[in-house]
Structure formats: structure tokens, C-alpha cells
Amino acid sequence: MTSSVPASSLDPTLAARLRRSADGLVPAIAQQYDTGEVLMLGWMDDEALHRTLTTGRCTYWSRSRQEYWVKGGTSGHVQHVKSVALDCDADAILVKVDQVGAACHTGDRTCFDADVLPLDQ
Amino acid sequence: MTSSVPASSLDPTLAARLRRSADGLVPAIAQQYDTGEVLMLGWMDDEALHRTLTTGRCTYWSRSRQEYWVKGGTSGHVQHVKSVALDCDADAILVKVDQVGAACHTGDRTCFDADVLPLDQ
């Protein structure tokens, strides 16, 4: 759960509390603040969390592109940040947002709309 | 995003679609099915997902204890599975559950109740 942490502008007290996966990232859940819909799961490093806390726009680290990614920067489907919370172990982040348009790049409202698995109970 | 995958009873077609982090795990969000509360984030490998789909109880892989963990197995704070969905990239799981009692080991209803971060916008 520890790894080298790249320099960032995140408050050092908060950075000291954050528990990162081996790749230095923390999973971040984006939830629509009023309806409760879980929109997507992204990944944040310290700097992405800092930018999310300070700019009012959700910013993630793209594992596939290896770059910071302001959600909606190209699509316009911005996430306005309403609140940010850590979980009890400081190893997961919940961001309540106001999502403009579709959260999913497929055009679905959420990334979890299209692939419900059959239960076999 | 690929790693060796331990043998499991998960449907092979589903296992072939699943995209795991370097540690072989996929983050799983537990959400209360009726209120929309995000309760916690846990981790599943193929076998934990299989057990979640087939037993009706949320089962995670504990990274700290390195063992399977049926949520509520000791506390009684069981998560009854209502639905399971993958996201658009098949690298995150959303489990809608009916949570008995507190989801958090601290006694809070959710793991995200206690640590709201200040915004500096």
C-alpha cells in the first residue's frame, strides 16, 4: 500500500494520510450529488486530488493515457465538484458532483448502465 | 492491466472480459440499492466476484489480510446482493446491496461519512 509519491501541490497533512495502491493511485467514485447515481470510477494520484479539491472540476489520472484528465475537458461533460470525502482507511475517495450530460464516453448517463451481470443464486 | 489470474469458478466468458489492476483485483463499489448511499469500496478478484454473483452475499478480497471476506460474516452486517454491474471498461464493479446495519467497521452507516475534505475553490 506504499509507493513513491510524486511531488504534488496536495496539502502535506492530507498526503500523509492518503493510502495509495501499489501504482500510487487511489480509486475515486463519482456520484451524482442529488440523485445518488454512481456515475463512474476513476483514479487519482495526489496531484489529481489536489486539482479536484481546488479547481471545482473533477480531475483524474488516466491509466491508459498516463496523463491528467479533466473530466469533460473535451466532451463538455464536466463534473462540478460538490464534496470530496475519504473513506475510513483513506484508501478510497467519494466525489459528489453535478454531472453535465453523460458521464460515460459511450453516451450512457453512467458507466454502469450497460453491463448488468446475471445473478445465479 | 493484465496479470496472472488465479483459478476460480467464475464463468470463463466473464473472466475473459474482466480487466484487473496489476494486483489482479478490481475495485467494487457497494451502494445501498434503495437510498443510493455509497457504502464502501472493496476489492474483488475473479473468485470473489463469482461468490458475490452466486451466493447473494457480497464477498471481497481483503488486501490487508490476504483472504476472502464475506461482508458481515463476523459482524452480522451482511450485504444482500440486489444487482451487479460492470462499467464500460470492465475494470470496475458496482454492487447494489441491501446493507444490514452499519457498512463501516467504525459503526458509521457508510465508510465515507466521517472524513469530508475541505474544498478550496
Automatic annotation (TrEMBL), chains A, B:
Origin: domain of life: Bacteria
Q: Where in the cell is it found?
A: Cytoplasm
Instruction: Specify the enzyme's EC class, one word.
Output: hydrolase
Name of the featured protein? Phosphoribosyl-AMP cyclohydrolase
Natural source organism? Streptomyces maoxianensis
Q: Name one Pfam family in it.
A: PRA-CH
The principal location of this protein is: cytoplasm
The keyword Translocase belongs to this UniProt entry's keyword annotation: no
Q: Which GO terms describe its molecular function?
A: phosphoribosyl-AMP cyclohydrolase activity
This entry's comment on the bound cofactor is: Binds 1 zinc ion per subunit. Binds 1 Mg(2+) ion per subunit.
